[in-house]
Amino acid sequence: MSSHRLFRFPKPQWLNSANTRTAGVYTAGALFSLGFYMFIDAATYSKSALNGSDPAVHITFVDWIPAICSALGMLVINSIDKSRLSADSFSYSGNGVAWKARLVLFLGFALMAGGLAGAVTVLVLKYVVPEYVFPTLWMGVANVIANALIMLSSVVLWVSQNMEDEYTYNLAL
Amino acid sequence: MAGLKTIIALSFVLAIGFLLVILSSALWHNFYPLLVVATYVIAPLPNWICGRASNSDDFMESSGNGVLDFGRFLTGFFVVMGIALPALLAHCAIIETSAMVMSIIGGLLIYGTIISFTMFFQEEQEF
Question: In the UniProt record, which is one GO cellular component term (chain B) (predicted)?
């Protein structure tokens, strides 16, 4: 296995242990929670007494759409069995399973990237162009931060689940 | 060997944690910080349930690991929720800042008690 390496530096040993994988999954949950509550904070702030924007600006359904897209994308990406992505190289799985898996994965990544882009769009069109100042601007900024954190959480979950595959693979051989 | 002293110390810490959380709600007649207690009581549950749901006998079977990971994900979610929820309430001026600090410290004490309790008494079951 070590002769098939591509890069000059080997992967550090701690990256393959089961503990790192467990910590990665916990970290992913923590990051998702942080992002989720960042957005809920903006929504609560919009309804609280602190929201003193003169023409009243509130979180409406438009602000929710990017977060919903990101969460759906995360669900799609992480519900795919990772071993199916390279399934065509094995002889026993026919019918283009890998092709379907890659298509669904592409949809998931598109949803997630669309969520982040949508958050930036909402920030620019709803909060920056009408030139709101900071307490109001926070509602847009929190939306972007929340979507970025959900994306980061998904990345961490993906990496740690791939780590698990290699771990069991090392154990099997 | 976790003895009687450990149980007494843990129960003291648990009582202090509950005292802090209840004080943070009752001092301002605003009972939102009690949600922290509910969060931290729920937090270890997904790990236990999903640990039972996935059969650990055949770990080469990759189907059981997804359930386990989902439980861990939910646990991480709930642990951060216990800190983020008082911060959210304080940022939106629903509770006072000092109530936020008290409820976060109390919640962490309660969760630490639950975790160390399971850690101390899990090892005895294996023998």
Answer: Vps55/Vps68 complex
